[in-house]
């Protein structure tokens, strides 16, 4: 988590510096950028594997050291890429959005507190 987004240890999240609507737009923008990178990375691997299969199946049938053919090895690499990129996506999402979401929630909770004594 970035040091400027992290709430103080043991304390409540910092108040929203700007309008909550602006913070929500920043969260949406950050999430959209992360989704685009995630899809480009994983979609690129899928497209390369698919193009290799469509253009010529022979290279994918070649054996690689260790037993499987090249097509299976590429699919296993694609699964590994998906797992690693999902972990990186989650870490980046937590770093860029979670602190902002906490600040917006804290801000709105202060604005919408129910009246006591009723």
Brief synopsis:
The chain is mainly alpha-helical and 118 residues long. The protein has helices at residues 20-55, 57-61, 70-111.
H/E element order: HHH
Strand content is: under 5%
Straight-line N-to-C gap: 41 Å
Major sheet size, sense and barrel closure: none
Based on CA inertia axes, which overall geometry fits? elongated
Low-confidence stretches: 1-10
Mean pLDDT: 76
Based on secondary structure, the structural category is mainly alpha
Into which percent range does the helicity of residues fall? over 70%
Q: How many beta strands in the DSSP annotation? A: 0
* Number of separate helices: 3
Cα gyration radius (Å): 23 Å
What does this structure look like?
The chain has 118 residues and is mostly helical. Helix 1 runs antiparallel to helix 3.
List the helices and strands and how they pair.
Elements: H1 20-55, H2 57-61, H3 70-111
Keywords:
118 residues, mainly alpha, 3 helices, elongated, disordered N terminus
């Amino acid at each position: 988590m970035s040091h400027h987004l992290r709430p103080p240890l043991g304390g409540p999240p910092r108040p929203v510096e700007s309008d909550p609507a602006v913070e929500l737009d920043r969260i949406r923008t950050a999430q959209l950028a992360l989704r685009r990178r995630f899809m480009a990375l994983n979609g690129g691997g899928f497209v390369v594997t698919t193009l290799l299969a469509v253009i010529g199946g022979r290279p994918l049938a070649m054996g690689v050291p260790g037993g499987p053919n090249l097509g299976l090895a590429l699919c296993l690499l694609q699964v590994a890429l998906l797992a690693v990129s999902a972990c990186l996506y989650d870490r980046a999402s937590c770093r860029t959005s979670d602190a902002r979401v906490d600040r917006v929630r804290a801000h709105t909770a202060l604005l919408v507190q129910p009246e006591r004594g009723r």
